[in-house]
């Protein structure tokens, strides 16, 4: 009878030990899964920040191009005004 009790206690102890190990393994898998998800999210944030920086640089580039175009447009207006004045002076001289 004692042998069966010892065997029964040993099995119970082994079962408890096995359950503990299984629970530890499950907890470790859960932690690892959470870590992997956190790393994935951090990587995504870095990618989004990089994309944001690239878009800001493109925006600055377009703004500089627009300013250059605006300045060029103003210079053309000044040249056109000068030509119109010269034309008016030439017409006036022809009339005289």
Automatic annotation (TrEMBL):
One of its GO terms (molecular function) is DNA-binding transcription factor activity. It holds the Pfam family bZIP_2. InterPro entries: bZIP (IPR004827), bZIP_sf (IPR046347). Gene3D superfamilies: 1.20.5.170. Residues 14-63 form the BZIP domain. SUPFAM superfamilies: Leucine zipper domain. This is BZIP domain-containing protein.
